[in-house]
Amino acid sequence: MKPLWVSLFFICIVSFFGLFGVQAAWRKAISSQWEADHSLARTMMDFRDKMNAIESSNSRMEKIRAAIAAAPLAVIFNPGLITTLKAALQVEALMQKERVVSWKMKQGWGLITHSTLPDLPWSIDPPDLIGERPLRWIGASEYFLGGRQVKQRRSEVYVYRKQDSLWHARFGSRPNTI
Questions:
Q1: Structural domain boundaries of the chain?
Q2: Model confidence over 60-109: pLDDT tens digits?
Q3: pLDDT digits (tens, 9 = 90+) for 29-56
């Protein structure tokens, strides 16, 4: 008959390897969840930042356009004013177009990596007599940036606009604050 300590030793060894296997499986699950969350978080922050940047750029463009419309009265005192204001308007318009194009490039890369990204909900209107026009809003007040599933793990991201007209982002379920 085997001594009791040999049986206990064998049980401890088997238990150790069982716990080690469970720990390794949890580590792998946590790693895949972190990878999914990290990837979505970067995309979410980029989308949110682009939306907020376009909003603030639109505000600046509206102010510059109002100054250009009122500038004929001030040209007497400062002849180069309209030229300077139109150059500032052009710079703002180029910055907006750069944001839209960079997001389109990210969407193109998403097609390659099998992740769908929403369009930026802005329309570029042709310039009028004053100059470039701000981007026109054509979208909704919330966007589901998608969920990424890695095995049984899933991450979901929503980007939405609150009453303060800033864009916010949230992981998980759809926000109630819309």
A1: 48-139
A2: 999 999 988 887 777 677 778 888 899 999 999 999 999 989 888 888 77
A3: 677 667 767 777 788 888 888 888 998 9
**Tokens (6 digits) for 167:** 């864009």
Residue with token string 């004929």: 72
Provide the residue type at 86 as one letter. Answer: K
Q: Give the DSSP letter of residue 85.
A: H
Nearest to 43 by CA among 145, 170, 176: 145
Sign of CA dihedral 104, 134, 56, 68: positive
Quick one: pLDDT at residue 15? 73
Which amino acid makes up residue 169? A
Q: How far from 51 is each of 27, 36, 96, 172, CA to CA, in Å?
A: 36, 23, 10, 20
- Give the residue ranges of DSSP H helices in the chain: 4-74, 81-112
pLDDT band at 178 (very low <50, low <70, confident <90, very high): very low
Number of Cβ within a 10 Å radius of residue 25: 10
Contacts 24+ apart (CB under 8 A), 8-14: none
Whole-number CA gyration radius for the chain: 27
Tokens 């979901």, residue located: 156
